[in-house]
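2024-03-11 09:14:02 DEBUG pipeline.ingest accepted 1 chain
2024-03-11 09:14:02 DEBUG pipeline.ingest length=305
2024-03-11 09:14:03 DEBUG pipeline.predict start
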Amino acid sequence: MKKLFSLVGALLLVNLLLPVSAAQAQDPLARCLGSHCFQMPVHQPNAFVTTQFGFLQGVMTMSSKDVALADGTTFDFSMAGVREELDYFLAFGRTFGVYLKGGGFALTGLNSDSALLFGGQGSFNGELGVAMSVLRGSSTAITVRVGVTKGKTLAVQPYPLINQIMNGGSLDATLMFSSSNSTGVAPALVVAQSLGAALGLQASAWMDYGKEDGETVKKLNGAAALDLDFGAFSTIPLALSGEFLYSKTLGQDYNEKTFGGGAYYSGRPDLQLGLFVSSTIYPKNALFVNGIDNLYGQLMMRYFF
């Protein structure tokens, strides 16, 4: 893993130091098919091999009414936090490239019950991978991606320590802290289809296969994103997008559905700048009998070289 990240770091440094010998990568129109320039989706990989740097900054909330505890009492669950992600893709022409991205989020309870029982949580993850263009036509692009992932989740929950003290136990601060680690591989197939100057569709399917604290986890994902560029038929440099993501954990009765939409400035082919909002539907369970209301909003800025 360290050798792979070192290799990509060296490639990024070479790309920065070499002048226009990297002219093959300086192609902002590489995210365009025909006369339509696509908006890069948030909840799925994209189908374009183009040198780019992206920055995402967002906020998120999670809440649920009448959360049922084992003793029969209920409370209102409420947490909020921030999320951030950076990504870099280095293209060698339009057929092959390497990418590196990393991000994380931090959440904390907003009311006393949530702060006591759930405390604060943080997650950090990274992915290193390669992408290869299988087909690049006038209106269609097909790309295969394979990434290696690594993540870590940390949690601070006061309740286990307080419960032990109330039951006559000794003070052991380590009871408040927990962590988990994950590693995996994520192969993906992504298709982009231009539907004219104004419309573009991207669809993808990928598998998350990995280990979480020694246990094998396999998740199948399918997603689609449609964007409409008003600048193609008017003087308004505005693009709107809609996204859908479905994730199914294999071997378990668990799935997630995510819906989202964004508004972007479309006046420059070398820049993606806009706002995106999405919500994930989690399945109900014995604890969250009414499910979880989730809302995520972010500012996205991405530059294409």
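2024-03-11 09:14:41 DEBUG pipeline.report The longest strand covers residues 74-92.
2024-03-11 09:14:41 DEBUG pipeline.predict end
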